[in-house]
Amino acid sequence: MPQTITPFLMFEGDAQAALTFYTGLFPDAEVVSLTRRPDDTVLHAVFSLAGQRFMCIDSDVHHEFGFTPSISLFVQCESEQEVDRLFAALAEGGQELMPLGDYGFSAKFGWVNDRFGVSWQLSLPLA
Asked: Which pTM was predicted?
């Protein structure tokens, strides 16, 4: 099997909600595999967004750390409407780090932590 590198997201009880939310946001998204524990939390899941595979779990051990914006998911959007739609959905219940705007390096850009704490950068390329 060839070496692969896959983003891995660790939640504490929100993995199913995050998985459902993320795969509902992107048109080319799917749950590839999902294994649950007897208490119905996610033991291990693989999902795909725009061809990129991710893994996620619900940790059954509490951790004193969470997600950080020092690593984020960068989405190159195809239209201003897509940037606006994704930003609004991801910002709901989350935190805006950089509001939607023109920062010179992108036609429209925004950075947000979603309600699960995962950080997203949304960019519309310059024409």
From this structure: 0.94
